[in-house]
């Protein structure tokens, strides 16, 4: 996820450069086209950053588009993206994902090599 956030920051800086170019020449077609492309890329990358659904009882809502879906289906069918807009959805908070991966890796090592005492 850090790579995605870094990429977004770099693309936003690049977009600022193109916007400055557009200040000098407001009819620069190349700059207008490049800014539109960068906006599209940045929006797509932001959808790759996972976030938990908004809790609404038995139903959840996509944090981006507000699409309502059955929260239980996320876990049952292992859905990872909003069926409507494609936003990455995680049932855990962003900090908990890392802890979960570390615990999983630790358990894997314990199973493979046994406990060291």
Topology record:
Blueprint: H1 2-24, H2 29-47, E1 54-56, E2 59-61, E3 68-70, H3 71-76, H4 94-113
Antiparallel strand pairs: 1-2, 2-3
Give a verbal description of the structure:
With 117 residues, the protein is mainly alpha-helical. The chain has 2 domains: 1-49; 51-117, no CATH class. Helix content is 58%, strand content 8%. The chain has 4 helices and 3 strands, in the order ααβββαα. It has helices at 2-24, 29-47, 71-76, 94-113; strands at 54-56, 59-61, 68-70. A 3-stranded antiparallel beta sheet has the order 1-2-3. A hairpin with a 2-residue loop joins strand 1 and strand 2 (59-61). Helix 1 runs antiparallel to helix 2. The chain is flat. 6% of the residues are buried.
| Sequence of secondary-structure elements | HHEEEHH
Helical content class: 55-70%
Structural class: mainly alpha
Number of domains: 2
Number of helices: 4
Gyration radius (Cα, Å) is 20 Å
Could you tell me how far the N terminus lies from the C terminus, measured between alpha carbons in angstroms?
A: 35 Å
Low-confidence blocks of residues:
none
User: How many beta-strand segments?
Assistant: 3
